[in-house]
Amino acid sequence: MAALLRVRPGFPFTFGLTLAVIGLIAYPFGAGLWYNNTGVADSDWVKELYVRKEVALADAPSPRVLIVGGSGCLFTIDAEHIGARLGKPAVNLCSHAGVALEYFLAYARRHARPGDSVVIVPEHRVLFRKEPEIAETKWKYFSTWDRRHYLEHGLIGALKSIYRIPFRDLAAAKQGLEAHEQRNAGYPASRLSTAGDMRLRTPITPTRLKNLKDLFVLPSPAADVLVRDMVRWAKGRGVHLYAVPEATALAPEDYPLTETLFALMKTWWRDRGVTLLVPHEDGRLPPDLFQDTAQHGGAGLQYVWSNHIADAMLGVSSEARDILLLPSHPVEGEPSQRTLPKGARAMVYSPEEERAWGVINDSGIARAIGGGARVFAGAPSLSVPGFDVETVSSKRETEAEVLRRHAGDIILRCPSGQEPPPPGFRVRTESAGGKCSILIDGRDIAAPWPHTQIRTLDAGRAIVTGVYQFDADGTVLTDWLGELKRQ
Is this prediction's pTM over 0.70? Predict the structure, then answer.
């Protein structure tokens, strides 16, 4: 028996080495699965966006257009309208600048099929600057909600990512497993369209970019490598690759600071094999066209900018004589013109500014009409001094007609109707303010809205598909087009 229990001298070393090898192999898998950042508002919100965008992707057959970038293009690009213009599906995959260029391109590679088009819309700070917080936001998102992205770095890259996790963070990950997911209260993902576009109207606080000398510099070497790798991949897969500059709030006095860089950027994209659809100069726009940041375009800019992109992809000129004029910030719930009148181009009304692309002011409207052009008003709230707006066409619907159009959607009334809300949904009435809020699992997903309003939600995507505020006669205006006439 004693002989059986004898251990060879080399056994401890072999046993220890075996444990070390097993540990080296098991640790990355265990750490990657265990580590998380649940409860971090930005990364949890990005996850909410991508959940809905994945549904939009599943519903979009190829060939299709995939648009990637941060919140600038999330708010300022209307993929639904671009798809209608091009005659093929377009999906807005834009999310948060903090997710960073490397992830945007990896996500596009994951979903692009042969024959698809990928449009890159990078924020200035994503392409031109290195900011630690950008990488940190990306890390917190994918390490929690998209662990597949570890492998998209390659085996060595995945191991480097996991082994950089401090042991104290692994110990703290238990708190993340117990944390509640946080939604971004300011930008609820429920306000995405079926194509992934943000339909939210935020408080209007016009601002413009600052520190321009630091911001408007040539793209970083890291961005250069990422774009070149993407070009090689796209060519091998038969995917068409395009770029569109970020639409940005800039005052005319700041334009000279951008001249040199914007002149170089056309060559920069061309030398890397990427087609630049829209000149960088066209992205310099008045601050009053934006919402709460210098990159979040209002509804008027969203429509006009998207038309500009569609024109470039179709290879057509946007110098039509007649004009479809849109307010920069239409009233929520009012009908918006989704189709360009034949022979017209879309422009945003800005009373003070006309130097920017796609913008027209009072004197510009007077010159256009004086020259024989027709100027159509694309929203009932549009008001231009010295002009009346005459209705060209309109359509009003009763509640029954609205509900018939939304058959299959979830219907939420304020105040709540007699029928019980669907499972997981609740409508909270604020009697003092006469408003309501939609809640899912006890958390707000939309800002309070007034009584007499109905909201419809797509049950599969959990997104708001319609906002209707009925008049005293029980009808709501659902389609409208006017024309400006001199007083």
Answer: yes
Report d(CA 340, CA 332) in Å as an integer: 20
Number of H helices, E strands in the chain: 17, 20
Strand partners, 391: 482
65 forms bridges with which residues in the sheet?
A: 90, 117
Structure tokens at 484: 């400006």
Claim to verify: residue 205 and residue 114 sit in the same structural domain: yes
Containing domain of residue 279, as a range? 43-94+101-132+188-316
Residue 382 lies in a domain: no
Residue at token pair 């919100």: 45
State how many domains the chain has: 2
Residue 458: strand, helix, or coil:
strand
Nearest C-alpha neighbor of 484 from the set 365, 393, 331:
365
Q: Report the alpha-carbon distance of residue 55 to residue 196 in Å, rounded.
A: 9
CA distance 283 to 224: 21
Phi, psi of 464 (to 5 degrees): -75, 120
Residues 111 and 210 in one domain: yes
**Domain boundary pick from 316, 350, 381:** 316
Q: Are 287 and 249 contacting, i.e. CB atoms less than 8 angstroms apart?
A: yes
Q: Is 20 helix (H, G, I), strand (E, B) or coil?
A: helix
- Residues 289 and 409 both lie in one domain: no
Contact 213, 257 (CB under 8 A): yes
Tens-place pLDDT, residues 400-432: 999 898 888 878 777 665 556 666 666 666 666
Q: How far apart are CA 197 and CA 49, in angstroms?
A: 10
Distances (CA, A) of 234 to 120, 179, 273, 313: 12, 40, 10, 17
Domain membership flag for residue 209: yes
Distances (CA, A) of 188 to 146, 300, 406, 438, 446: 20, 20, 21, 11, 6
Of the candidates 242, 245, 236, which has an alpha carbon nearest to the alpha carbon of residue 274? 242
Could you give the C-alpha distances from 125 to 97, 246, 294, in angstroms and in order?
Answer: 8, 10, 12
Q: What is the CATH number of the domain that holds 270?
A: 3.40.50.1110
pLDDT: is 132 or 210 the higher one?
A: 210
| Strand positions, DSSP E, 286-369 | 322-327, 344-349, 359-360
| Residue-level pLDDT at 433 | 65
Would you tell me how many other CB atoms lie within 10 Å of the CB of residue 83? 20
Task: Concatenate the DSSP letters of all residues of 381-443 into one string.
Answer: T---TTEEEEEEEEEEEEHHHHHHHTTTSEEEEES--SSPPPTTEEEEEETTTTEEEEEETTE
In this model, does residue 4 exceed pLDDT 60? no
Closest to 32 in 3D by CA, of 209, 170, 195, 154: 170
